[in-house]
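debug: dumping io for the single-chain case to check the tokenizer round-trip. Nothing else runs in this session.
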Amino acid sequence: MTARFRYIAEWMFMDVLGVGVEFTSDRDTVLNPTLPVLNYSVERVGNEPFIRACGLLESSALELPEVIPVPFRGSSGLFPSSHDSLMPFDPFAACFFTITRMEEYFATERDEHGRFRHDQSVLVSMGVSGKPIANIWCRFLADSLKEVYPSLVFPIMPFRFLPTIDIDNAYAYAGKSIMRNLGSAFRQMGVMGVSGFTERLKVLMGQMSDPYDTYDYLLSHFKGHEQDVRFFFHLGDRSRFDTPVSWRSRRFRNLVRTIHRHFQSGIHPSCLASLDTGPETMLKEKQRFVTITGHEPQISRQHFLMLRFPDTYQKLLDAGIASDYSMGYVGQTGFRAGTCTPFRFFDLVSGEATHLMVFPFQAMDVTLKNYMRLTPDEAIENLSALMDEVKATGGWFSVIWHNESVTESGEWKEYRRVFEYINQKGFEYARQ
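debug: decoded output
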């Protein structure tokens, strides 16, 4: 039995389907079972339910397999099995291929930030990226086994709701140096005219609140659900794509400490940390979190979702991060890894499962408004459909928001309504 097969079989049966699983290579146990049995190999032993292994999980080589879709029960699987198999495709290989993100190791076309493009995904080409297809494959397997063992029970898995907030730029004007404000003011006047300069001046003089300061609203909105929310703070240095408030700002430090007292929070590694060939920049940003809060961060999400395999996750492991929340697309909503169930990162280079947990998300505010160009009503419809998909299979539904996207002003006008509607629906589903 290979590390690949044990990893994916445990995830499918234990994490997705909620049942225990044991492994054996003993023929007598298969021929005379005391428990329901499934033979996953290259040959049948007797009359037991059997799925012919396609070979992907028996190999340790880092090679991109030939990907062949297989129609099944109104949907599609991957990797044909055989005519005498319980299913016409290999669900173990299919799930392993999608959740390890094997295709991303071989990507040759990337976007301007070096990210994997959603239009290069096999699941997108199959038209199933809007569904938790790996969870559906697991359910197909469960249904097929129940046809052989009618008394076999697979529990209904719960729906979990996980709203998350990224703090890329904590304040529009506050907490920034005089020189930075002056430079930004002159640039802003060219776009917004005198009104933008006046707003900045009023904020700096204490005559109005900073437009990005939505934290009292967020604290009030999530009251009673603090354990269900995650915050991620950008603690990096300035660069072309990193424009945070300085981590040395007293106001910003107080904000981080306040949020951390109420919610689980972690780091939002910068683009500089992503581009760094080693973990040094990420370790520096992690230490800033420790300096501010007095606690080691356990969770992270990459700024700009700059996720590359296996480099990003290896840096997080080196930094002692336990869970990452970057698994999703910038350009469209849906299921990048084909699942709504968290999974351990399996490093295809070393051939081993790691202890880093990956929590997929399904949508981001910027994706809805800027990339997909959806109106607030269209965004609600899109998110509701994704949430219903997760509700049907069980699993985690998660959306990325930013502090500025709930301002209810400027370019984000009416998106607070989306935020509130989806949170209300998500928490209601989680209570059912």
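debug: round-trip ok. The radius of gyration is 24 Å.
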